[in-house]
Design brief:
Helix content is about 55%, strand content about 10%. The chain is an alpha/beta fold. The chain folds into two domains: about 1-120, Response regulator (Rossmann fold, 3-Layer(aba) Sandwich); about 140-254, Arc Repressor Mutant, subunit A (Orthogonal Bundle), CATH 1.10.10. It has a five-stranded parallel β-sheet with strand order 2-1-3-4-5, sandwiched between helices. Helix 2 runs parallel beside helix 3. The two termini are about 25 Å apart.
Length: about 250
């Protein structure tokens, strides 16, 4: 995969670009920009992942991320921040940033987030291909028109499952339906309601993180949309019959 790294601080930029084992972490091509304006120009090289400082001259990281998202909706975005970037972070919320990392950057954390970014990139491309195929397909007959709305809701859940405030009301709004009607369509088409589908998506992602990373249960909980690690652990045990820790130690299959 191709990664664009935008960082205006010389020593941070040189240190990370020169010492991080990019190829070992699945990055075949690294593109480096020394400020936001240069990075904006380098987006033309179509990176799969954008790793950007949030505060840069000429073009800040939030603006850069917005441009990148407009050019490529499937791009994975990681941001580097400092304690003074709270206002920038508020502006970045709508951009579905995959992870925020504080400086100085921990190389292990960077490796974990790049792994997630690669996975998210593949997932996003798959969803976009599905959408393109649907657009090229013949329209559903009138009695089956709701299948488009169910698929749209499913894509939205897969793209936003990590957000704690993802609700049935928000999903319904995205598909221009009422929550009750969307729930009825889900039960009719796939036999379960949207909330249950979202839970299964989150648990599937959590299982992968438990198997493939050493992140804490609290960190994984937050990455799949649960603010409380305790709540996540109880939900996980209720749904799978085992605790997150036991699942990790047993390397059980989904």
């Amino acid at each position: 995969m191709k990664l664009l790294f935008a960082e205006d601080e010389y020593y941070t930029r040189k240190g990370i670009s020169a010492t991080f084992p990019w190829k070992e972490n699945g990055i075949d091509e690294l593109i480096v920009a020394s400020d936001g304006r240069q990075a904006t120009e380098l987006l033309a090289q179509k990176p799969d992942i954008l790793l950007t400082d949030i505060r840069m001259p000429f073009v800040d990281g939030v603006t850069l991320a917005g441009t990148a998202r407009n050019m490529d909706p499937a791009i994975s975005i990681l941001m580097l921040t400092s304690y003074s970037d709270k206002e920038y972070l508020k502006a970045a919320i709508s951009l579905s940033i995959l992870a925020y990392m504080e400086k100085p950057v921990d190389m292990r954390e960077l490796a974990e987030n790049i792994a997630l970014a690669r996975e998210k990139r593949v997932q996003n491309l798959r969803l976009l291909r599905m959408e393109a195929q649907e657009k090229l397909a013949l329209p559903y007959p009138p009695e089956c028109a709701h299948q488009h709305q169910v698929q749209s809701a499913l894509r939205y859940m897969h793209a936003h499952y990590e957000e704690e405030d993802l609700s049935l009301e928000r999903i319904a709004e995205e598909t221009h339906l009422t929550p009750d009607y969307l729930s009825s369509l889900f039960r009719e088409d796939i036999g379960i309601n949207p909330k249950r589908v979202l839970t299964e998506i989150r648990l599937t992602c959590a299982k992968k993180l438990l198997r493939d990373t050493e992140e804490s249960v609290q960190e994984i909980a937050q990455k799949v949309g649960y603010a409380s690690g305790n709540y996540f652990a109880k939900l996980f045990r209720r749904e799978t019959g085992t605790t997150p820790s036991d699942f990790r130690e047993g390397r059980e299959e989904t």
